[in-house]
Amino acid sequence: MSALPSKVEEAYYAQGYRLLGKYKHSAVKICHWTKESLRNNRVCYKELWYPPVQSHRCMEMTPYIGCNCHCLYCWRMHSGDRPGLLWREYPLDLREVDEPDVIIEDAIQRRKELLFGFKGDQNIDRLKFEEALRPTMMTMSLTGEPTLYPKISELISEARKRGMITFLVTNGTMPEVLEEMDPLPFQLYVSISAPNEEIYLKLMRPLFKDGWSKLIKTLELFPSLDTRKVFRLTMIKGWNMIKHEEYVKMIYKAEPDFVEVKAYEWVGESRKRLSRDAMPYMEDIRDFAMKLSDLTGYKIRGEFKPSGVVLLASK
């Protein structure tokens, strides 16, 4: 019944994931910044820049653990990354999918179970801990490509019923899904990691044809989507921190409200694919962001060194 072989399930469990529902194509995990907010009162940049985010009440999850790309910089485990761990990632081996209400209820419960370990820590504010058990935000960015889940709009509706805003991070390869989504998420991210098709194919390694053209269609669709929209530029030293003018064309085409210029982090399985030198320094990110600002007119509105990110805003 599961979308994954048992050995793959065990590997995800060891990494802190909890698979959800009957078919186990979705997952939840405690975000690093949820832990930091509880332990040290340090919050994610999203709380600083995008009201009404609260890091300790953010539920990071995915409705679809499979992905249609094998990005070099992705922290997640790809099929074949580890000896003996092979499975069909795209599309997942599924005859049916779990209903949105099943996914969300299970995600809330599994997240509670993961958070219970903090209950005994005397240094954690009790009120904040109790609040954390009741998420007010669902972020679909944990792993995989969420727009591959066929009931993504219904999932957003179910989150709304439970008082949660939604953030959705997509690789932009499913413009036909975005075009039909109703409702849209509270905030929509598209992840951009290449200024042109040549670099895109090397970095993103799509598992299907026409990945670049699909992304361009998403950018063309972006201005018509009535929600808060963000470009996330994942910067990888020695790979894609070039050709500023081509990124500028993409920004002009999509007209996002915000652009995040964010450093690739040398973590997880990506350490087997890229060298540590591929992780930019903060000054590299500042320089790149300043050039984009000069070329686009977007203003630098903030930076967050712990995550290696600079924020540009259209207004």
User: What's the alpha carbon Rg, rounded to whole Å?
Assistant: 19 Å
Q: What's the CATH architecture?
A: Alpha-Beta Barrel
Number of strands: 10
Low-confidence segments, given as residue ranges, are: none
CATH topology value: TIM Barrel
Q: Would you mind describing this structure in some detail?
A:
The structure is a single chain. The protein has 315 residues and is of the alpha/beta class. It has one domain: TIM Barrel, CATH 3.20.20. The protein is 34% helix and 17% strand. It has eleven helices and ten strands. The protein has helices spanning 6-14, 32-40, 45-49, 100-115, 126-132, 152-161, 175-180, 197-204, 211-221, 244-254, 282-296; strands spanning 18-20, 26-29, 58-62, 137-140, 165-170, 187-192, 228-235, 258-263, 299-304, 309-313. Strands 1-2-3-4-5-6-7-8-10-9 form a ten-stranded mixed beta sheet, sandwiched between helices. Helix 10 (244-254) crosses helix 11. The longest helix is centred in the middle third of the chain and has 16 residues, at 100-115. The chain is globular.
Please summarize what this structure is.
With 315 residues, the chain is α/β, with parallel strands linked by helices. The protein has helices at residues 6-14, 32-40, 45-49, 100-115, 126-132, 152-161, 175-180, 197-204, 211-221, 244-254, 282-296; strands at 18-20, 26-29, 58-62, 137-140, 165-170, 187-192, 228-235, 258-263, 299-304, 309-313.
Give short descriptive properties of this protein.
single chain; 315 residues; alpha/beta; TIM Barrel; ten-stranded mixed β-sheet; 34% helix
Helix and strand layout, with pairings?
Layout lengths: L5 H9 L3 E3 L5 E4 L2 H9 L4 H5 L8 E5 L37 H16 L10 H7 L4 E4 L11 H10 L3 E6 L4 H6 L6 E6 L4 H8 L6 H11 L6 E8 L8 H11 L3 E6 L18 H15 L2 E6 L4 E5 L2
Parallel strand pairs: 3-4, 4-5, 5-6, 6-7, 7-8
Antiparallel strand pairs: 1-2, 2-3, 8-10, 9-10
Helix pairs in contact: 4-6, 9-10, 10-11
